[in-house]
Amino acid sequence: MTAPRVVIADDQALVRTGFGMILTAAGIDVVAEVEDGARAVEAVRALRPDVVLMDIQMPGLDGLTATRRVLAADDPPRVIMLTTFDLDRYVYAALTAGASGFLLKDVSPEHLAAAVRLVETGDALLAPSITRRLVERFATRPDGATLHRDLTPLTTRELEVLRLLARGRTNAELAAHLHLSEATVKTHVARILSKLDLRDRAQAIIVAYETGLITPGNP
Description:
The chain has helices at about 15-25, 35-45, 65-70, 90-95, 110-120, 130-140, 155-165, 170-180, 180-195, 200-210; strands spanning about 5-10, 30-35, 50-55, 80-85, 100-105. It is α/β, with parallel strands linked by helices.
């Protein structure tokens, strides 16, 4: 299996160097370490990495704006946001832009390497329960970014799957609740993402709240 190729964007040299050493030791190819969003965008265009570790707050072009530019390109990499604050409101905005999750900067070396490999395969980094907490905290705020998706392309069964997925159910829990196989559940989830033009489950959860399919606090 080819090692994931990673760009690290953070304005703190110690963070860039430390993360670079951790990933390299784990057999992951760090192709660039940059100190701001503008250089991150340039590095992605030039080097075509698989994953970008993107700090949210950087001088000049901030990480959120840089993420939007990176993900707007054809065949974009996966983006993991780096933050010092759990449930930072900017993380929610990054998820609506298509980021695959976030990591706190005090993440363990093992978790850092595992996170990069996870999102490189196409999975969302955030556990559904964490994504749900983010959404319930920020989705109803007027200053929040929105995805504006129409749910009419979904079948009745797909709406049911999306509703349960947005409540934090894993594939195994969905399968048990709906009396389906996990393979069938995965097919339903894949069709939901495809029909709504979403990158991963994190965005699907956001859409479920922002379209009113479910509302914060209701079972």
